[in-house]
Specification:
single chain, mainly alpha, two-stranded antiparallel ribbon
Length: 304
Amino acid sequence: MPVVSGVPQGSVLGPLLFLVFINDLPASVSSKIRLFADDCILYRTIENHQDCATLQMDLNKLALWGSTWGMQYHPQKCNSLSITRSHQPHAFNYTLKGHVLESVNTAKYLGITLSSNMSWDTHINNITAKANKILSFLRRNLQIKQEETKSLAYKSMVRSNLEYCSSIWAPHTKQHIDKIESVQRRAARYVTKRYHNTSSVTSMLDHLNWNTLENRRNINRVTMLYKITHNLVAIDPNLYLVKQPIMHTRNSNILQYQLFNTRTNYFKYSYFPHTVVLWNSLSHATLMASTLDQFKSLAQSQYY
């Protein structure tokens, strides 16, 4: 068959050529759009029926763009997710190329399960279930004595799943925190090969020098804020953060931020409001670290 479009899979220039090809896609719509490889997400704040109509118009424009440039969408693989805490959300049947998009309560985007009620319950349930399955796989197939090898397997195959994007979804309830920590506690028994119910898991964790996953998430959060503060990532700190007024006291720090006014736990424990609290609790020397590696080292010493 003649190849009329596309790039060779596995080539060096393929990804770059594809990005160049779809670079004008966001300019064709008025709503916000995010692109990652061949994944596309279109979203908009809905305050009235006109916003729903505008979002539908943008879906039509995406379909037109695809037809113009020979790109085919798969409407069956697309869905609509309304994220709101309102008791009376705006109902609208969105369509793409004549296909009514399925309205869902949860949707997975770039490995993160988003829920319509802004809860991370489903995501945490998914990752802990997956982590426990992988850990059981290791117990069945990696029956060796070397703790170092088993520890490396746990960190690379299990813990990495539990910490992916944890800066965003880090839980604040004891139920969720304990549920995630229980995976690591099972892993500690596997690595040390101590399954007796009288064995202290805390002593196993100390022996393995494993920090709690909650502390590791806090370190990840403040590390990301350090990157944002020093423009190491493409997030403008001025859009979300306000510096504390300079107070001429011994405990004042020019790199501390003003706390957010929050009315709900959903906002209070979201990334910026909660991380600012963690950030302001760090020592002056940690906040003034000149390099990212130095900051990580100092932050880890405070969270261990």
